[in-house]
User: Fold these one by one.
Assistant:
Number 1:
Amino acid sequence: MKKALSLLLALTMALALTACGGTETADTQEADTETEDTAEAVELYVFAAASLTESLDQIIEQYKEVAPNVTIVPTYDSSGTLKTQIQEGADCDVFLSAAPKQMNQLDTEGGEENTEGLDFVDSATRLDLLENKVALAVPEGNPAGIETFDQLAELLKSGGVALAIGNSDVPVGQYTQKIFSYYGLDEAAIADCLTYGSNVKEVTTQVSEGAVDCGIIYATDAFSAGLATVDGATAEMCGQVIYPAAVLKTSQHPDEAKAFLDYLSTADASAVFESVGFTPLG
């Protein structure tokens, strides 16, 4: 009788322990599910050069599947304008510039170009993300018969062409100034031939609408706008067109910002950049 009671007691305790273990597992699984479902919603503010608009918009859509709790809020404009907005206190987590100059101006490790001692860039996250090309684009049908930069230089000297370029405070305008210098052109002397845009998209629009005979823009913008390019600038003419990217020290979500920056160097993101003519470097 005592043996039977002992066996019954042991069986009861075993069943109780099994039930407790099952409850703990179920509770743990439920907690894990709740953690996944209630991950903190984060907004990341990404400032990017206007020439990145089409490709980055597509990548942002892709990123929703990678990090569904992260909403990317992009702002596109000239790198110079974005640099100024960052300097003036605009919310920005990640900065993608169309040239090293604007990034250097915000980076304590930016060398001589950081003339104001600004300290906005997390230098440890900075990388050269992409390379682009400067191109000579023409309207549909190329009515003026522009074929090369060499020809353009001669037409500018004679005053026989209308050319759209970027302002001097934006990277595409600064690359254009280097091309002028390469050909020995004085911008002030050829002013009657020039119209300006505050970013590369404005220059591209002037060419697309046939308001000018040609424009100096990025090859990627010409591709996105369906414009023909008749010549490309060499590195000797204007240097390499490098797009640096970095997380900013002012970011309220540095971990999520770094994760997004890392994603921009993945195969999926690189494929998008390559599809419009960028060369991924990161």
Note: The CA atoms of residues 55 and 275 lie 8 Å apart.
Number 2:
Amino acid sequence: MDTSRPALLVLVRHAESARNQAKKGSVYFADDAARQVVRGVPDHLIELTADGRKQAEQTGHAVRERFGAFDYVFTSGYARTEQTAEGVLAAYTTAERAGMKVKADLFIRERDPGFAYDMTTAEAEAAFPWLNEYWQTFGGFMARPPGGESLADVTGRVHEFINTLFRDHPGKKIMIVTHGGTLRCFRFLLEGWTYAQAQKWPAGQSPANCGITTYRDAGDRLELVDYNQVYWTVGSAA
């Protein structure tokens, strides 16, 4: 049997975070009141909401029932991915958890959001009046937020991470808890997307908090089994 790749790859977007709740799906904060809860907190320290913790726990029971134990669990090292992994793994027995190696890997962290990280929409438009035209010209995969990373930049480090998985963990069952933008980079690489496909999520296909995307070894590639499966019933699906 060809064991040049993992047998199973389960990608999990982190559960609802405090910034998810405060921004309500917008690029920037609506106003100063909306950002107060998380203002000044760096991205890697943003934690889950109470609903987010419940989402992770509910997801864990479904993941354990469907996939059993994993050989490795990777997070981005950001608080919200580590807390999501903890919630998911709470569904497993002590013995099962002892057999799973949990590691943080900065290659699968969220894209660097740049200078507008804590800005309201009005502040960002005033500071970067050219940004909307630039974004329309280059598109959501190639364009870089001021001082930040494009998703094309992120794809470079995700590529390194995938290469390491193939080299070091062939035939293994792996769960990865990461971020929405990073998930698009995984799909670009694993499914051979074009630049046009990667520009934005198709309507209705943005990854949900704790959405599960599954790939299995198909002999010559990792094949997509399903995308964005949601197993929780609390909070918002956005």
Note: The beta strands are 8-13, 72-75, 101-104, 173-178, 212-217, 222-229.
Number 3:
Amino acid sequence: MVAVEPDERMRAVAAERHPGTPVLAGSAEDIPLPDGSVDAVAVGQAYHWFTPQDALPQIHRVLREGGVFAALWNIRDDRTPWVAALSGIVGSEGYGLESAWQYGPVTPWFTEPERGLIEHTVTVPTDRLIDLVQSRSSYLTADAAEQARLDRKIGELAATDPALAGRDSVEMPYRTCVYRMRRAPSAASTTSPDEDPPRRGGP
């Protein structure tokens, strides 16, 4: 496994938690790997930040023939009442759950996305629910008054909801939405001689 991450701080965390796994400085639009060097590319919680016209050719380039590209999102399962109450405070995470791919064309680089949905749970300390909220971009970009409101509301939920009150931890249910695309072998031939070739990363 090789990780590619643009943020220096996140690379440091990954290196600390996964010693021995290469963590390279790069981005989806400029992947520092050789042509045809990987069997699969997986993207977690990030594809919506990509510039597809640059990222898709790069992902196609580093994949071997027959390789697979998978974009996935971990989404809170609002069918559980206390999770629905949490989403009522911070907003729902509906992206990715639609039946069809919603992020623009992937051809000619890849086949049409195939969708899968996987359910699982993660044990979360009840007093750390606020940490989940504070990690969201909507919280980080909110003004101080809105952040204080969210802190207060999450604290009230943890103290009063029957599923949370008095418990040290809780099982947070998630649905992981995965879109799988296969590398299209003919994509390289679609670039005309007058067009710039896809950008390549370093060796």
Note: The first helix runs from residue 8 to 17.
Number 4:
Amino acid sequence: MVAVIPDSAVIEEIGLLRQWREDVACVFARDPAARSRIEVLLAYPGVHAVLLHRVSHRLWRSGWYLSARILSAFTRWFTHVDIHPGATIGRRFFIDHGAGVVIGETTVIGDDVTLYHGVTLGGTSWNKVKRHPTLGNNVLIGAGAKVLGAITLGNNVRVGANSVVVKDVPHCCTVVGIPGRVIQRKGVKIQNPNGIDLDHHLVPDPVGKAINCLLERIDQLEARQEKLSDKHCKTCDADSVCHPETEAA
């Protein structure tokens, strides 16, 4: 599994103003509440965080590490979104609502990715190596989800709200649960041509399904036991154990 991942140098060649325009324009395709560009520019903290990260990342790439960290710290204070300036983020990146999102230093994010509030793209090591996730194109991560470690999420992956993902996920899969489990078969692409699929209510519930299977099995076993009891146990030798009060009377 190889995700299509952007390179920092290639992204910078696009031009900062063009990146900003794309980051603002993509909001209208993913948030029906957006009404105008001026509203998005003034009232969307997720957009503010992305726009300022574009600047801090360029400072980081140029070796201005302290300046990049100071701008990143200001952005976190201003938007409640914590993006390390070393993180590589592709085009048309959108953070909806924004509050509580954390993106680590070695994170790599593809194009057309959407995150909701409370998402963490975190590390699992203190070593100075690649320790944060890599996200392919058209990935959508639900509110409160945690994606941890140097793992890779393929293109068109969806992560359900509050899931915890600690293993690689193939292309075109849906992951839910703690720890995250793939619940949609590989190879089924998201139907929306823009790669955005917000049908969270259609995500299956593997725990509920397992409980239903157990209940059905219990009903079958009880029915079978009842038939066997009628055939062989008309007089039960264990009445004294099950109903000691009857014998005592």
Note: Residues 28 and 121 are 25 Å apart (CA to CA).
